[in-house]
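pasting for ref
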Amino acid sequence: MVGRLYGEKRAAAKKRASELIEQFGLTEAAKRPAKTYSGGMRRRLDLGAALVAKPPVLFLDEPTTGLDPRSRLDLWGTIEELVGEGRTVLLTTQYLDEADRLADQIAVIDHGKVIAEGTPDQLKDRVGGERLEVTLADAADADRAVRALADLSEQPPAAEGQVVSLTARQRNGTIVQAVGKLAEAGIDVDDLVMRRPTLDDVFLTLTGRAAEDAETERRGESS
């Protein structure tokens, strides 16, 4: 139907539809009504319909919203294949891990304005270096842990519940130093890890709130 709407002859439209049905793994469901498809299958069907005319640029507006984790990963793979074929994809998403995996260039939008843009690594560098996250056995030790770890960062460590986090001056040796300082202070630890900043950290630093909170606020304003 979509091929015919684009002006294709019936035979050409049918051939193109068969190609896309196979490409998006819908062959077994091809003769079923679309209303019987799962959410992930419907997203793949939407993508297939959008590609009938072989557009060089594809706009995807929150394509994975509401999908289960498996369907979401499958759609990520499909989008990566499209980019690998040479298409330009403009993707809007509220999931920053999705943007981190799929995007070469990212624009962060808050209240309708672009507040930052760049590659994922460039945006993460705005937050700082590696972050040390310590999960304490007892949240009551948070203030003492902040004092014990203060020398490991240029900025004061932050405490939230049982988790104390800081931007490390250097990656090498920081974990060993942190364990030693916490042991000297008599503070028990459940977990300790070094990690690179995420795009969630970037959004939180730029706006003062998490991306999920911003999306909830946006949907509330538009309802």
